[in-house]
Amino acid sequence: MGAATGSGLNSSSDDTSGAGSRLPERYRVLLILTLVYAVNVADRFVVSTLIEPIKAAFGLTDAAVGFLTGVAFALCYAFASLPLGLLADRAHRRNMLAVAITVWSLFTALGGLAHNFWHFLIARVGVGLGEAGATPASHSILADYFPASERTIAMSVFAFGIAIGSAMGGIIGGLVSESFGWRSTMLLFALFNLPVLAMLMCLREPARGASDPAPPAPGHAPAARGFAEVARFMRGQRALLHILAGGAIADFAKGGLAWWTPAFLARSHGFTTGGAGLQVGLMSGLGGALVLVAVMLVMVRMMGRDPRWPCRFLAIFSALVTLPGIAAYLVGDSWLALLLLWLFIPFANFHVGPALALLQNLTPSAMRGLVVAIFLFATNMANLALAPQIIGLLSDTLATTLGNPGDALGIALSLSAIAGFWAAWHFHAAIRTLREDITRANGPG
């Protein structure tokens, strides 16, 4: 596999066409983009492991921590993802990824050097701006390497980046923090990105739409669409809207809770920062990886069957895993709480691969970067802006009544978990028009 030669963001001299000649290459691409996603998630997740020492260093309330570690990042990430999604439909996507990694690595390191609330806030804003450009470009590249029948599997493998990054942020972040402090931890995580950046630069840019049912002729990639045209198209795709809503609510109900779980274990069950990070890291990393393997195997069995099966799968399991999530934060016994969390947190991201694959199949190639960006806007506002802030505010409010910060945080987390049933309803509602909407996405124009 030769190195790409394009130097600018809009270069296309190293485009390739025809999926058949790239069979070995596409799996190397999938592996490297999964690693990119892993370090992306790790730089995000490690902050949740470091909540307690950061809170102590700057003298913050739970609401302030929720804003600093969640809202500040999420607002920049979510709003920047929209123009960067448009750019991913027009630009050289590999080079766009390289710039994104460089930016978020720099600001992750600056976060470790912050001396007050405002310095750390600026650093998180910068990380959000950098990471916003990565996922739309990655998804767009993968959709051009894998045909529709294989995208669910490819996106499920790509979702392993969440498990790897969560494990890095929880286990490595917690252990390094206990030995060297939270500042050194953030500097180390910035350095993790450098070898991944080097591997990324070995990838080639695929031709847009190369793996679609009717791929364009070489040199005639479909023209990117504007925001207004994409919005009009999405309004007519009811299944797409339900999957987008279900994914955002699932991220609120599960991902947002995982964000606060290390602090919950420290307050309610006496865990150290390293111990809480290790537990949540194992749940998110090892447990999450096992769940994603199981999801991938289920998707392989479903491949070629009724395209509505992934929606049924998402609806059923979103409802089932909500039950232990509600209970885990209310029980007083530490071992029972850990058992229930093992039945909940590993499933926090099980929906990501199937949902993203469904979105790709429901969207024409010229719109995928922006549609993925809109999905990221919704999910990250729910997961990183609303969930940390709402849970933090609930925790502060309940603490004044209960007088126990651990109990207050547990009740706030349990109440938030109920939203998982709402996500399940949206995934089920998508079934009604899914077939017609997929046909429309693959039609002319």
Written description of the protein model:
With 445 residues, this protein is mainly α. The two termini are 33 Å apart. It has helices at 23-49, 51-58, 62-88, 93-112, 117-132, 134-145, 148-158, 160-180, 182-200, 227-235, 238-269, 273-302, 309-328, 334-342, 352-361, 368-402, 405-417, 419-429, 434-441. It is built from 19 helices and no strands. The chain has a single domain (25-212, 225-441), classed as MFS general substrate transporter like domains (Growth Hormone, Chain: A, Up-down Bundle), CATH 1.20.1250.
Task: Please summarize what this structure is.
One of its GO terms (cellular component) is membrane. The protein has 445 residues and is mostly helical.
Shape: globular
The major β-sheet equals:
none
CATH topology: Growth Hormone, Chain: A
What fraction, in percent, of the residue positions are helical?
A: over 70%
Low-confidence segments, ≥5 residues, pLDDT <50? 1-22
SSE sequence, one letter per element: HHHHHHHHHHHHHHHHHHH
Structural class: mainly alpha
CATH level 4 superfamily? MFS general substrate transporter like domains
CATH architecture: Up-down Bundle
Rg over alpha carbons: 21 Å
Q: What would the average pLDDT be, to the nearest integer?
A: 83
Number of domains: 1
Provide the CATH top-level class. Mainly Alpha
Q: State the end-to-end distance.
A: 33 Å
